[in-house]
Amino acid sequence: MSRRVLVAGGGLRAAAAASSALAEGDTVTVVAPDLVATLEDLVHRGLVSWRRGELSLDDVLAADVVLRVPADGADRRPRPGTPAGAVGDVVLVGAGPGDPDLMTVGGLRTLAEADVVVTDRLVPLAALDAVRPDAQVVDVAKIPGGRSTGQDAIDALLVEHALAGRRVVRLKGGDPFVFGRGGEEAIACARAGVPVRVLPGVTSSVSGPALAGIPVTHRGLTQGFTVVSGHVPPDHPDSTVDWKALASTGTTIVVLMGVRTLGAIAEALVSGGLDPDTPAAVVADAGLPSQRRVDGTVATIARVAADAGIGAPAVTVVGRVVEALPLEPAPVA
Asked: Domain count of the chain?
């Protein structure tokens, strides 16, 4: 039976508490004067309700469960025992596609060791439970069409904290080096003399389809898969993908960040020679309780996704593998 859960707080730790309650099937209301971008995104997507202001007695009486969440912290001290002037380090941690069970053991252990966690909106928020209460959690979410933290500001934040002697974890959805701009962050740290290392994550390009019952390769159907960004449409000056060549590879095509441009991408693939009846699917919110999958062909998938109200984040798969397995989507813990 669904409970009415009230979360008092507007920070990332509050977002983590809300995410955990949603995973249990609860109805969640957040009460806070302001929200960080990641929690604002949950509200915008209709997953969480928000009442602006302070917690009141009426709020408490109307709820089945009240969660008072600690603030995200502003402790800027170095780790105990750190020599004066010592430089800390930065660890780029891939958080996987959204399900906390798909984070690596090393990633969770590093979170528990962090003095500062700088995190995206697409990470499994429940993983923040591993962060020490005295650690600082910083939201640098990039919300499509909404609030966004520039990459230069993120780079500067990582360097600033590390030069102050802190262990900094940059928590990123999926894998840091698969359209995650982790390479840029690594370069910024190296140029500033900050030690940096990478803990790879489970990329959504493979796990998103798999969670929805789609293998990106399957014997007898395809001998490979190609992952491309759909951030800009094929006719955009910044597009470097040879869509005509891609249409003739005979591999599974996986498109990340391509919800808005899906129609133009499908047209380019068909124009490049891909059979318009090639099966296609879009998997949205992979690894989350709100995960959805819609199916069509490369000629119809943009319309099917739009009619279903599919929004980002989503992964598009084009190829015969879409119909390869009689599997139900994987359950989300």
From this structure: 3
